[in-house]
Automatic annotation (TrEMBL):
Gene name, Swiss-Prot/TrEMBL: Myo10_0
Pfam families linked: FERM_M, IRS
Domain of life: Eukaryota
Upper lineage: Eukaryota, Metazoa, Chordata, Craniata, Vertebrata
The protein's name in its UniProt record: MYO10 protein
InterPro entries: Actin_motor_Myosin (IPR051724), FERM/acyl-CoA-bd_prot_sf (IPR014352), FERM_2 (IPR035963), FERM_central (IPR019748), FERM_domain (IPR000299), IRS_PTB (IPR002404), PH-like_dom_sf (IPR011993)
Domain FERM residues, every copy: 1-233
Residue ranges of the region described as Disordered: 226-269
Length: 269
């Protein structure tokens, strides 16, 4: 999940996780240690997000018409466009290599600070960092939320399915946009091979996804598990005054913001 970009956190924390992974794999830093590829340590999507978005500047109407008239006869117009695209791609690849080298250098510097940390300690520190995200343990699916038939277009989201709740995340955001305990889900199922429907109380949510079956199977598993731990019926509840520290049934506890740990030095004694 970390390498696929499904753990939303800062680049600093992602570099720390990569350093801990190296410490776990190779022990202390050494110039002779085998280096995994960067994409095996750090999510590539973060590097791609640093690159500037391509800007399309169509030529003016008159200039473009004159240029096309002069080039189309010999088929040079397509060649010119292909050459421009190849040059842009080459520049982006060069920029990506530079960003990758900078990131790897930062990871190595953090790795050097972990000298003396054993493999179990490095693994425990790695998991402790990742577990700070409230959504840890959920399985995330890329979905497009279709709000309504008249909406402007679907919204790209993460659908997180965990043991206690189903949550909706904006990609890259640590806190959910919304979260539903299983007690609030009235029904779910596939509308067709690429549309998943989730009914939450009086709302119907439609998701476009290629993983309809996987989502349904996981929900079935968690709902079956939750059914074995159903709360007592009203007539079975004791008559003692309610405990003010216990939330009402059917409500999800709201997790606090994901607080990042201090930088790497906190792992090094």
């Amino acid at each position: 999940m970390v390498l696929r970009g499904y753990v939303p956190t800062s680049e600093e924390t992602l570099q720390t996780l990569a350093a801990l992974r190296l410490q776990s794999l190779n022990s202390d830093f050494s110039t002779h240690a085998p280096f995994p590829r960067l994409e095996e340590l750090f999510p590539p999507c973060v590097l791609h997000a640093r690159l500037p978005a391509p800007r399309h500047r169509p030529p003016s109407k008159h200039r473009g018409a004159r240029l096309r008239a002069g080039l189309l006869a010999g088929g040079l117009w397509r060649q010119a466009l292909a050459k421009q695209q190849a040059e842009r791609d080459q520049r982006l690849r060069g920029r990506l290599r530079e960003e990758g080298a900078t990131t790897m250098a930062a990871i190595v510097e953090k790795w050097k600070l972990l000298q003396g940390m054993g493999r179990p300690e490095a693994m425990a520190a790695y998991l402790a960092l990742v577990r700070e995200w409230p959504g840890f343990g959920s399985t995330l699916f890329d979905v497009d939320l279709r709000a309504s038939p008249v909406a402007a277009g679907p919204q790209r989201l993460w659908l997180g399915i965990g043991a206690k709740a189903v949550s909706l995340y904006k990609p890259g955001e640590p806190e959910p946009l919304d979260s539903f305990c299983y007690g609030r889900i009235s029904s779910f199922g596939a509308s067709d091979s690429s549309t998943f429907r989730l009914s939450v109380e009086d709302r119907d949510l439609l998701f476009e996804t290629s993983q309809v079956d996987e989502i349904a199977q996981l929900l079935n598993t968690y709902l079956a598990s939750a059914g074995t731990r159903r709360p007592p019926r009203p007539q079975e509840v004791a008559t003692s005054p309610p405990d003010p520290t216990v939330p009402p049934r059917g409500l999800c506890l709201t997790a606090g913001p994901w607080q990042h740990r201090p930088p790497l030095g906190s792992f090094h004694s």
